## 1
Amino acid sequence: MRYKSTRGGVSGLSFEEAVMMGLASDGGLLIPEKIPLLNEKDLKHLFELPYTKLAYEIINRYQDGIPSNDLMAIIQKSYAKYDTVNMIPVRKAAGMRIAELYHGPTYSFKDVALQFLGNLFEYILTKKGQKLNILGATSGDTGSAAIYGVKGRKNINVFMLYPANRVSHVQEMQMTTTESPNVFCLEIGGNFDNCQDLVKSTFNDLEFKEELNLGAVNSINWARILAQTVYYFWIYFKTVHRVGDEINIIVPTGNFGNVFAGYLARKMGLPIAKLMIATNRNNILTRTVKFGDYSIERVHPTISPAMDIQIASNFERYLYYLYGGDCEKVTDAMELLRVEKEIDIRGHLLGQLQRDFIAGEASDDDMKDTIRKVFAQSDYMIDPHTACGVYVANQMDIVADNTVCLSTAHPAKFPDVIHEVLGAWPEIPDGLRDLEERQKVSYKIMPELQDLKSFISQHAK
């Protein structure tokens, strides 16, 4: 399997080269040169597998450089802290099914991918005798999940940018209290898009990137998308009675990475009928699907901060397929976005987009009301992001036994919202109980490229 850029300037990369490059050197995102297809016989073979073996079967189709035993060892190490027999419980609640993706070390769905990516980085670096400086941006959960994936590892530093005062207190404390000397948390004055722009601009300085050997953990890294694709198969097998039945999946999303993984799974042959995007007030993806209006507006703080995003990085990967693999059209569209702050998708392209996805949005009040209703109806507690998905499913009238909402974070990560709505505090998992007793360590910098590059240069080892 070889990899290329959505913008056409990079091709022929191995899986390991794609993982280490992160953002393509031409500014695009890396994608496989072909997507493996699974038939009904293949799906039946995967049906009863435990999670680690399922992950191996999916991931191995996208790589040919890592020996089978080594790949399986990386996967087993990545999920050793999970109950891999029931790693992602799929429960009935709110008239549908809820897939609990948050049973990893930081209680976020992003642990599934970032535990794998951290071990994959370590494997490749050890083999090559190299050091890596990871650079990432977070609107909430990516930061802590990435940090927990690489903290304390030899030959790796991680520099994680997050918008000051725009992540939950629990999320911030998870990131900043690891007491690990290879972890650097940077509070940026601004919003998540400012953080993401800084990361991309730093990667686009190819000389600096090569000098510091920068790597990416955001969902611009292909390995994250690939690892997330696995759980769509898992959820499907836990929902259907027989292979071939269709399901609907609702994805609360801001950066489009999670829902793109579902799109990839469907292109591989997984029978997903409706793939729904659920957004909060920061509704660029909903506007795009409904009206073809991918225009950047101001970011509004909400109670579901992981989706407080107006520039959905992974949308470029989807554009590549929407434009029929025309890299020149992708490049032109991304340049238009940079200059004019919008991409206009009309005509047959909008029709295709609407066949691929449906979308809706929820306000803060909608999410709070949904948390309240789900608890009253099902005695089941959900976080605001999951509530966004459940609300949109009801608005779009696809609540059914074969509809699954991805639950992306443990409700205990948003205790103030839960307490405000329900008048009760969520049960605190063991890994979150002593956060307030730890010492917070973070660094404040302005959203200036030179300030970030200077900080990385001073602290990279």
Note: The radius of gyration is 20 Å.
## 2
Amino acid sequence: MAMSRPTNRRPENHKISKELFVLTHGALVAQLCKDHEADEDVNKYLDQMGYNIGIRLVEDFLARSSIKKCRSYNETADIIAKIAFKMYLGITPSVICRKESANEFSLVLDKNPLLDFVEELPVGRASLCFSNLLCGVLRGALEMIHLPADVQFIQDQLKGGNVTEIGITFLRKNDDKKHRRNK
């Protein structure tokens, strides 16, 4: 007897996976806070773990999304927000270009899914970046596609911000002449 997979299971599995990830992330941060007194150490560990996830996750993203090479930083930021965040976290952040140089962007999350079960930072942890894993994931994934970037939080809802804002600064200048030749 052949078993078939119900077609309606994918969205349910995605939601369960997201909730499991969010709960696991909370437990991870709690354990790191127990293991390390300094918030900077916890932030560093979260960033490094995220980086390691990002360098592996980018292959899955490219395979599942069928994205071709981006022609600009603006296009890259849009794909991160509209496809990657939607695919893995079920949200679509807004993209804001922060500088006229077109290499600095912000991803603005009205609702940060990593904070679904968190109301406030632990007592005495004012400089903790609870969601710093996201910065590491973005940095690692971008590095794997040869787009080194500085990624950091600009606003954090756990620290009184109205939104969660992640700043991305691409570290190489966009070579417009190269792109014109390849068109």
Note: The helical segments are 9-35, 39-65, 73-89, 132-144, 176-182.
